[in-house]
């Protein structure tokens, strides 16, 4: 499943799908964009996207451990 930050914001279809799948986060970003200037918002978005990608990468490569009884 795509994270909120994996969608192409330049595509109206993808942006609509993202907003449908993540309504609370979409609302948060709309409000945040109104409060910050464009440069501040882009810095925040970029940082959140990097964190999201690192988290997704960690979740996709779990370490295998033996379970003992």
Report what the structure shows:
The chain is mainly α and 69 residues long. It contains 3 helices and no strands. It has helices at residues 12-21, 23-35, 38-60. The model has no long low-confidence stretch (mean pLDDT 88).
Q: In brief, what are we looking at here?
A:
This protein has 69 residues and is mostly helical. It is built from three helices and no strands.
Descriptive tags:
69 residues, mainly alpha
- In percent, how much strand structure appears in the residues? under 5%
Biggest sheet record: none
Number of strands: 0
Helix content: 55-70%
- The computed structural class is mainly alpha
| N-to-C CA distance | 33 Å
Order of helices and strands: HHH
Topology summary:
Elements: H1 12-21, H2 23-35, H3 38-60
């Amino acid at each position: 499943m795509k994270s909120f930050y994996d969608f192409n914001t330049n595509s109206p279809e993808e942006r609509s799908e993202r907003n449908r799948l993540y309504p609370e986060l979409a609302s948060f970003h709309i409000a945040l964009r109104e409060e910050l200037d464009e440069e501040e918002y882009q810095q925040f978005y970029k940082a959140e996207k990097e964190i999201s990608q690192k988290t997704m990468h960690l979740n996709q490569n779990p370490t295998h451990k033996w379970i003992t009884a």
